[in-house]
Amino acid sequence: MGKFKNLYTMFFVMMGWVLFRSDSLNATLVYIRSMFGFGCKGFIDAYVIQYFKQYILYFIMGGTMSRFKTT
Length: 71
Prior knowledge:
Helix content: 55-70%
Number of helices: 3
Oligomer: single chain
Strand content: under 5%
Number of strands: 0
Order of helices and strands: HHH
Radius of gyration: 17 Å
């Protein structure tokens, strides 16, 4: 259980954020279902592809820079 207590904490923090952010209980349930992949069109659609094309340089730079070790 010791290894997973951070995951439990993060899960409940995320659910609490959704609960207090939403305007209604129905909006909360829709948002939580979407987080777990229910009731959505899929992970990749036209908007996601357009977003990746627009910011691909930043993704490459971030991935490259994260490989360097800083001391």
